[in-house]
Predict the structure of Beta-glucosidase.
Amino acid sequence: MTTAPMPDFPAGFRWGVSTSAYQIEGATTADGRGPSIWDTFAHTPGRIVDGSTGDEACDHYHRYAEDVALLAGLGVSGYRFSIAWPRIQPTGRGAANPAGLDFYERLVDALLDRGVEPVATLFHWDLPQALEDAGGWLDRDTAHRFAEYADLVAGRLGDRVKLWITLNEPFIHMSLGHGMGVHAPGRMLLFDAFPVAHHQLLGHGLAAAALRARGCGPVAIANNYSPVRLAGDTDADRAAGAAYDALHNRLFTDPLLGLGYPEGLGFDPGVVRDGDLAVIAAPLDVLGVNYYNPTGIRAAEEGSPLPFEMVPLAGYPRTAFDWPVVPDGLRDLLVQLRDRYGDALPPIQVTESGCAYDDAPDADGRVPDPERIAYLDGHIRAVREAMDAGVEVTGYFVWSLLDNWEWAEGFTKRFGLVHVDYATQRRTPKSSYAWFRDRVVRP
């Protein structure tokens, strides 16, 4: 971390923080909410590192007013939260559950009352279990159910949400949830998971159309990106890097921007029907970029089921997740997106950027987290460098407002600007909270 002044950002640049429903809300049986795939997965022995579930999480459902006050104190202009699909449609289809919509209406109105713009993500991985039982994202019908759900939410909140994000990280949901089985729903399909990719993207396009039919916008999607760092210099290494780049970075972006699916990945394209790509490529108002780290790649050993091998990147500080801290990777990624897509690329907002460390209160009850401050300092400067290189970036959201339930890692990884004591639900702003408020948001 440098003590140099933070760079200037344009007036109207959106500074925000992000969360997701299952990770913070709790109240998994309140107000008629149905079960999601993450309820099922978390309650399956052996799936979660510490054996915990999101049943209570951060109890945000009951404590949202306290959390909105934290947002107001932070001074951010945007709060990215997700809406739990099974809280709106307990079985993933049919009429809306009014009590579920009421909760999000209370949240949105509380945000607006405190001068914070609501940024709503419609799907952050918590598919209603009833839809999974019917085939989930492997089934084309789920894309149409998603559009129906989007219409229901837009009908209640469309006049107040300032940015709509359809999907969060469809690559991660496909790869970890359906390719390798380490996230819900726990399928292990490897490259047979392509229908999950296509149906998520089709759902995005159909949901975007439903939102716009309600007069809602702007509309975005939040993709996870990881620039490739080659761990070798052979033609085979370069081919492996290109294959990984196509899978992680292009599979969920090329079709959105009218280029169709990248070739050479070995997917069966049989699920793609006439007209699907046009639906997927409806204009985006914003591209959400979630960035945590680059990926080291080299050629795979002969006989490997994958055309590449992922290798650790040496020489960088590491987070508690053992992820390398590479701020320049964010700058390089943003410039690469601009160079790759040119005029087809919409304005970018960095919709997630953050790090996990083992933060704990000290003897005085304070929570110092200098490593997180250094991480954010470096990544915010990287965004400014990309903007200076001509990339249009209009916002930056920290992951996350609160320490929360971190998917398969349970409560073992802390990403928040605010420490949460999960036994008491006490919130304690960390030193990074004050730094972000005083050095970045309100310098």
About this structure: The longest strand covers residues 117-123. The first helix runs from residue 21 to 24. The radius of gyration is 21 Å. The CA atoms of residues 183 and 254 lie 25 Å apart.
